[in-house]
Amino acid sequence: MRELTLDLGERSYPIRIAPALLAENDWPAFIAGNQACVVTNETIAPLYLESVLARLDGKRVSVVTLPDGEEHKTLSTLNQIFDRLLEDNHTRKTTLIALGGGVVGDMTGFAAACYQRGVPFIQLPTTLLSMVDSSVGGKTGVNHALGKNMIGAFYQPECVIIDTSTLATLPAREFAAGLAEVLKYGLIADLPFYNWLEANWDGLLARDPELLAEAILRSCENKAKVVAEDEREGGRRAILNLGHTFGHAIETATGYGSWLHGEAVATGMLMAARLSADLGWIAEVEVERLASLLKCAQLPLKPPADMTAEQFLSLMARDKKVLDGRLRLVLLRGLGEAIVTDEVDQAQIVGAIEALR
């Protein structure tokens, strides 16, 4: 088993990575009381819920099975969790358990942050994207029709248990979307990792277990380091959003669920790389290098055909990184070196968007 700790003082927690952890690891020891509520979705429940419930024998357990998909990451869906907690008389001693991908994890964490002003929760991510990104770092929330993840809270889990066996049932499209977030860590802060990913890309696409475990570990190490330095995104943590400002605009414009989050981030990262090259910060060959990796994973290289540059700018103006009316973008000063800047003019942004059409 691979294990690391996200160091946040008294709120530090372990991240464990290995096959068969849902059934064999001692993660139920993180449940302090005798109540628990497992939140999952209609896709994951038939696959893994029985195994998780078997580990909770002797506790009073409720189950909430949500509809699957980003389009359901809303306040109205969130209320299904609160309804069950209240109907089953869960107290402040209860523990919520997120069994699923990023949508389930984000909503369960937000529900835990809000229910009786805060109860513990555990992350059991079952998609590659949630393993390397959303389950780690304590960002929780829901979407709004006018913007992605605009309603939420920073709230850390008790532990993150990454059972890599669950990747065997992950559809190819979702697996590829997760690889986009893996690439992100190499681009923003770890050039040796980016080079390693490039060298092992075929094996990762083939889902080689050892390569995947190493990629997940390296991704989580990179994220844990950044979060430990800047938990609430007051500064450095914003680099984790490489490609996300462009990507969130795509998700909002197309209706949540049409593009997977990782697909939108892939195109967004390519836009950020294109803009970085236009500014003279990275070489043209590095844009082509990224595009080649994304293409091999069958990730989109172009924005939606009917989405205008004006739509991008309008939606990006609502991004959480906007400060005092100025749009801040995460760009690359070089491979493995991301920065946050508000000094790019609108014409340059439009140029990068149009260049990928």
Write up what this structure looks like:
It is a single chain. This protein has helices spanning 21-24, 45-54, 75-87, 102-114, 128-134, 172-189, 191-199, 201-205, 209-229, 244-254, 261-278, 284-296, 309-316, 346-355, and strands at residues 2-6, 13-18, 35-41, 60-66, 95-100, 121-125, 139-144, 147-154, 160-163, 329-334, 337-341. By secondary structure, it is of the alpha/beta class. The protein has two domains: 2-168, Rossmann fold; 172-355, Dehydroquinate synthase-like, alpha domain (Up-down Bundle), CATH 1.20.1090.10. The radius of gyration is 20 Å and the shape is globular. The termini are far apart.
Keywords for this entry:
2 domains, Rossmann fold, four-stranded parallel beta sheet, Dehydroquinate synthase-like, alpha domain, three-stranded mixed beta sheet, 357 residues
Quick rundown:
Helix content is 45%, strand content 18%. With 357 residues, it is of the alpha/beta class.
What is the 3D shape?
globular
Q: How do the strands line up in the largest sheet?
A: 4-3-5-6
Computed CA radius of gyration, to the nearest angstrom: 20 Å
Task: Assign a percent range to the helix content.
Answer: 40-55%
Low-confidence stretches: none
Strand content: 15-25%
Please give the structural blueprint:
Layout: E1 2-6, E2 13-18, H1 21-24, E3 35-41, H2 45-54, E4 60-66, H3 75-87, E5 95-100, H4 102-114, E6 121-125, H5 128-134, E7 139-144, E8 147-154, E9 160-163, H6 172-189, H7 191-199, H8 201-205, H9 209-229, H10 244-254, H11 261-278, H12 284-296, H13 309-316, E10 329-334, E11 337-341, H14 346-355
Parallel strand pairs: 2-9, 3-4, 3-5, 5-6
Antiparallel strand pairs: 1-2, 7-8, 10-11
Helix pairs in contact: 5-6, 5-9, 6-7, 6-9, 6-11, 10-11, 10-13, 11-12, 11-14, 13-14
